[in-house]
Amino acid sequence: MLALRRVAAKRSAALATPFQTAPFSSDSWKDKERAAESSYFNKEDEKALRKLLKKLKGQADVNDESGLKDHVKHDTEGLKKLGLDLSKEQVAALLKWKHEH
Question: Where in the cell is it found (predicted)?
């Protein structure tokens, strides 16, 4: 009976010892998962903000015609200051590109 207790005590002590984990254990996996999740939500937030900005700009263009005219005038003057030989079509295309992106 005493021998059985000694064996049981040694056996339970052996089972209680912690086992060694791999170097790339769950901590690094969790960090990678958090980084990927954070990146995904940052991209989703950026998309939502761009959509909101586009909507606000569209409303401002419709409701503030004088402000839009001043803005376009400022942009065309800025292009002239660059000293580029641009045709009216090229200037219009550049302004359209700028205001739609």
Answer: Mitochondrion
* Beta strand extents in 9-86 (DSSP E only): none
Query: Which tokens hold the place of 86?
Result: 């641009």
Amino acid identity for residue 60 in this structure? A
Structure tokens at 17: 């010892």
* pLDDT tens per residue, range 39-93: 999 999 999 999 999 888 888 877 888 887 888 899 889 888 988 888 989 989 9
CA distance 99 to 96: 5
CA torsion, ordered 68, 70, 71, 73, to nearest 10 deg = 120
CA 1 vs CA 4, 10, 64: distances in Å: 5, 15, 96
The answer to whether residue 23 scores a pLDDT higher than 70 is: no
What is the number of other CB atoms lying within 10 angstroms of the CB of residue 15? Answer: 7
Q: Kindly report the CA angle at 42 between 37 and 47, in degrees rounded to 5?
A: 130
Q: Which pTM value belongs to this model?
A: 0.47
